[in-house]
Amino acid sequence: MNRQTFRRELIRRWAIGFPWGAAGVYLIFLLGNLFTIPAPANGMIWVVSDTLSSRWGSPVTAALVQFLWSGALGAMLSMAGLPFLAERRTLLWSGLHLLLTALVFSLAGWRCGWFPYPETWMLLLGLLLLCYLLMWVIHWIGWRQDLRLLRLSAGLPLDGAGSSHKKDGVCLEDSTASHSSHKKDGACLEDSTATRNLPKKSQENSSALPEEQPVSPGRRLASYLLLAAAAELLLPWLLRAVDAPDVPVLTGLFYPFLILPLFAFFSARAAGKRCSWPWTLLYAVLCGLLTVPNVFLLYNDTALFQSWTAGIAALLGGLLGCLRRKIKS
C-alpha cells in the first residue's frame, strides 16, 4: 500500500471512529444511570462526571469536552487495523499504536474525570489492553488468511521464498539462485541446464512441483474457533484469579456484559468476511455453546444468559461480515 492510499485509509478510519467513540461513551453513561444507587435526584440523567462538570462550571461545556476526548479515543481504536495494511513491521507498528491508545485513554479519563481513584484507572486500562489484545489477534488471523489467499491467487509460495524439494538425494531449488551449493548426500542443482543432466525420473520430479490448495472454509473457521475456546473457556478463569473475592467485578460484570459480546461480535464479523453463511451460522451456535461449561463450573445457572448473549452477538457480527463480503464481491 502506497503512502497516499495509507493516508486516505487513516483519514477514513478516523472519521468513522470519532462518532462511534463519542456515542459509546455517552451510551455507557446513560446505562450507568440505570444501575446508580441511589438513583439521581429529580429524575436527572448524568452524561458527564461531577468532576468534569464542576471543573468547567457548565454541564454543556463539560459534555462538549467529553465529546472531543471520547471521539479521539474512538478514532484511535478504529485505527487498530492500520498496522496490518502497512505490510511491514506489523508487530512494531501495532505496539506503537497500543501505547498511543493507552496514552489517549489515560489523558481522556484524566481530563474527563472518569477515574475517581487510581485503582479505577488501573482496572479500566487493563480491560482496554485485554480487549485490544483480543481484537489484535482477530485482525492477525484474518490478515494471515488474506495473505495466503493473495499468494495462492498470484502463484507465489506461501513462505515467500523459493520452493525447494528433495528426492532421491537431489535438492532442486529456484533457478533464480545466484550461487551453487553442494551437500554431502547429493548435489544441489540450481540452473535449468544442470537439471537436464539428471536422470529422467528426477527431471519429472523437478518439473512436477506440488500445487498449493486453497484453505477450506472449515479450516478458516477453525482458527477463530480456537480463539473462541481460549476467550470463553480459559479467559474467565484467568479473570477470576485476579478478581476481588468479595465483589467479582471482572467475571460478574465486565466479562459477560462487555468482553464476551464484543469478542463474539468482532470475531464473527471477521469469520463472516471469509466464510459462507452456513459456516458463519455454525460459528455463532458454537460461540453460544462454548460458554455453557463455565456456567456450571465457574458461575451458576443464573449465568446461562451468557450463552445467548454470545450467540446473538456472533450472529449479528456474522451477518455484517457476510453482507460486507457480498458487497465487495
Structural description of this entry:
The protein has about 325 residues and is mainly α. It has three domains: about 120 residues, no CATH class; about 45 residues, no CATH class; about 110 residues, no CATH class. The protein is built from 13 helices and four strands. Strands 1-2-4-3 form a four-stranded mixed β-sheet. The longest helix has about 35 residues. About 15% of the residues have low confidence.
Derived from helix and strand composition plus strand pairing, the structural class reads mainly alpha
Binned strand content: under 5%
Biggest sheet architecture: 4 strands, mixed
Q: Which strand order does the major sheet show?
A: 1-2-4-3
Chain-averaged pLDDT: 80
Q: What is the number of independent domains?
A: 3
Unreliable residue stretches: 160-212
Count of DSSP H/I helices: 13
Pattern of helices and strands = HHHHHHEEEEHHHHHHH
Number of strands: 4
Q: How far is the first residue's CA from the last residue's CA? A: 20 Å
Portion of residues within helices: 55-70%
Overall geometric form: globular
As a whole number of angstroms, the C-alpha radius of gyration is 26 Å
Pick out its properties.
329 residues, mainly alpha, 3 domains, four-stranded mixed β-sheet, 13 helices, 3% strand, globular
Secondary-structure topology with pairs:
Layout: H1 3-34, H2 50-56, H3 59-78, H4 82-85, H5 90-112, H6 118-154, E1 165-167, E2 170-172, E3 181-182, E4 187-189, H7 192-195, H8 200-207, H9 217-242, H10 249-272, H11 277-289, H12 292-297, H13 305-328
Parallel strand pairs: 2-4
Antiparallel strand pairs: 1-2, 3-4
Helix pairs in contact: 1-3, 2-3, 3-5, 5-6, 6-9, 6-10, 9-10, 9-11, 10-11, 10-13, 11-13
